[in-house]
C-alpha cells in the first residue's frame, strides 16, 4: 500500500511601478557580482582519512560427522584518503565471545544453550595456524595485519578480509541441533600516512590512525541427527576352514553405530543373497549351499532380522543410553548339517540402520 500527499502551490500577482531600464540593469549586475564574490569565499568540501566496515557472519552449515568442517567468511571494509595518496596499515582483532560457557579464544566455543558446546576457532590463514586474537593488541597471538594505498581524493573500492573458520570433528554423542556464538567488540585498528606505509596499525611518528567497530551476526553451525555405521570386519565374518560341517561352527564380529545424543535407532540385517524360506545360506561357486544364521545374543537364541519398523528382531538403541560409538556384537553360527562339496562358501548381508 502506498501513501501519497499532494503539495499545493499558490501564486499571487503583485504589480508595482517599475523604474527605467537603466537602473534595473545596474541593480541586477550588482546582485550577480555579489553572488559571485560569495561563491569565491565559500570553503571547498574536504576528505578525511578514515576506515569503516559493515557486519559479517561465519556460518559452518551442517557439520561433517567424519571430520572437521571449514569455511571462509569475508569481512567487508573500505578506507578513504585525503587529497593526497594515503597509505594504510590495518589490523583485525576478534574477542573470545560472550556465551555462558566460554573458555577464551583457544578454543572459542559455540553453544546450543542447552548445556552442549562445540569448539571452533577463527584464523587469519587458510592453513588454520594463526588464531585471530582479541583487542587491543591480540593478547599474544600473531596480529592479523595488512596494508594498501588509496589514491588522493578517493574512497577505496569495496574490499574484504578473509576469515578462516574451523570446527574439529564433533565428539561422538554430540547433541544434534543448532549451535551459535555471539560476540561484541570486534575492531579494525588502522594507521595512515601520506608519505609511506605505517610500520604498524597503531599511530606512531607521522602516522595517525583510528579504530572502527565491526558488526557481527554470529557464528552458526548445525549438528545433524544423522547416524553412521562402521562395518568393521562384518564383511569378513569367517567361520574358518573345516573338513566337515557335521559338527557346526560359531564365529563373532562387530558393527559400530555412531549417533548423536538422544537419537533412537534400530539396526536390522537382511537374509542375505541366497535365502530360502527365511533361512540364510552361503553359496559356493559350484552352486552348493551351507546354512547359517546371525544372532543378537551370545546364546544364539535371538535371530537377527530386519524388522526396523517394529524392532522385534533388531538391535535397538537410544543414543543417550548407549556409548558412542556403540559397538555391537554379531553372533554367527553354522549349525550341524549334511556334508557339502568342498569349496569356498560366502554370502552378502545388508545392514540396515533406521533412526
Entry keywords:
355 residues; mainly beta; five-stranded antiparallel β-sheet; four-stranded antiparallel β-sheet; 1 helix; 22 strands; disordered N terminus
Explained architecture:
The chain is mainly beta. Helix content is 6%, strand content 37%. It is built from one helix and 22 strands. The protein has one helix at 21-41, and strands spanning 50-53, 56-62, 69-80, 86-93, 108-111, 117-123, 144-150, 159-167, 177-181, 187-193, 208-213, 216-223, 228-230, 249-258, 265-269, 281-284, 289-291, 293-295, 315-317, 326-334, 345-346, 351-354. The strands form six sheets. Strands 1-3-8-6-5 form a five-stranded antiparallel sheet, with no helix packed on it. A four-stranded antiparallel sheet has the order 7-4-10-11, with no helix packed on it. A four-stranded antiparallel sheet has the order 13-14-20-18, with no helix packed on it. A hairpin with a 4-residue loop joins β16 and β17. It is rod-shaped, with a radius of gyration of 38 Å. The two termini are 49 Å apart. Residues 1-46 have low confidence and may be disordered.
What's the layout of helices and strands?
Elements: H1 21-41, E1 50-53, E2 56-62, E3 69-80, E4 86-93, E5 108-111, E6 117-123, E7 144-150, E8 159-167, E9 177-181, E10 187-193, E11 208-213, E12 216-223, E13 228-230, E14 249-258, E15 265-269, E16 281-284, E17 289-291, E18 293-295, E19 315-317, E20 326-334, E21 345-346, E22 351-354
Parallel strand pairs: 2-12
Antiparallel strand pairs: 1-3, 3-8, 4-7, 4-10, 5-6, 6-8, 9-12, 10-11, 13-14, 14-20, 15-19, 15-22, 16-17, 16-21, 18-20
Amino acid at each position: 500500500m502506498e501513501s501519497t500527499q499532494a503539495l499545493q502551490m499558490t501564486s499571487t500577482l503583485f504589480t508595482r511601478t517599475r523604474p527605467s531600464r537603466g537602473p534595473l540593469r545596474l541593480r541586477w549586475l550588482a546582485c550577480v557580482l555579489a553572488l559571485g564574490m560569495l561563491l569565491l569565499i565559500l570553503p571547498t568540501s574536504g576528505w578525511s582519512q578514515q576506515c569503516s566496515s559493515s557486519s559479517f557472519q561465519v556460518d559452518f552449515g551442517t557439520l561433517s560427522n567424519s571430520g572437521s568442517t571449514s569455511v571462509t567468511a569475508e569481512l567487508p571494509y573500505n578506507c578513504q584518503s585525503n587529497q593526497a595518496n594515503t597509505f594504510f596499515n590495518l589490523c583485525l582483532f576478534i574477542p573470545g565471545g560472550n556465551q555462558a560457557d566460554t573458555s577464551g579464544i583457544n578454543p572459542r566455543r559455540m553453544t546450543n544453550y542447552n548445556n552442549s558446546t562445540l569448539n571452533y576457532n577463527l584464523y587469519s590463514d587458510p592453513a588454520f595456524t594463526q588464531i585471530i586474537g582479541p583487542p587491543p593488541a591480540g593478547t599474544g597471538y600473531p596480529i592479523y595485519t595488512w596494508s594498501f594505498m588509496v589514491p588522493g581524493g578517493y574512497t577505496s573500492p569495496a574490499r574484504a578480509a578473509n576469515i578462516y573458520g574451523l570446527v574439529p570433528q564433533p565428539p561422538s554423542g554430540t547433541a544434534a541441533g543448532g549451535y551459535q556464538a555471539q560476540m561484541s567488540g570486534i575492531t579494525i585498528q588502522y594507521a595512515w600516512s601520506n608519505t609511506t606505509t605505517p610500520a604498524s596499525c597503531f599511530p606512531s611518528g607521522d602516522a595517525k590512525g583510528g579504530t572502527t567497530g565491526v558488526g557481527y551476526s554470529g557464528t552458526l553451525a548445525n549438528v545433524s541427527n544423522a547416524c553412521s555405521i562402521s562395518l568393521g570386519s562384518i564383511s569378513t565374518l569367517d567361520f574358518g576352514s573345516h573338513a566337515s560341517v557335521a559338527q557346526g561352527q560359531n564365529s563373532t564380529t562387530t558393527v559400530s553405530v555412531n549417533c548423536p545424543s538422544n537419537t533412537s535407532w534400530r539396526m536390522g540385517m537382511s537374509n542375505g543373497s541366497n535365502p530360502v524360506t527365511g533361512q540364510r545360506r552361503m553359496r559356493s561357486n559350484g552352486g552348493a549351499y551351507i546354512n547359517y544364521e546371525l544372532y543378537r545374543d551370545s546364546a544364539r537364541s535371538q535371530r537377527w532380522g530386519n524388522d526396523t519398523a517394529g524392532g522385534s528382531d533388531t538391535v535397538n538403541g537410544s543414543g543417550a543410553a548407549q556409548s558412542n560409538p556403540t559397538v555391537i556384537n554379531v553372533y554367527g553360527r553354522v549349525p550341524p548339517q549334511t556334508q557339502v562339496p568342498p569349496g569356498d562358501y560366502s554370502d552378502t548381508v545388508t545392514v540396515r540402520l533406521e533412526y
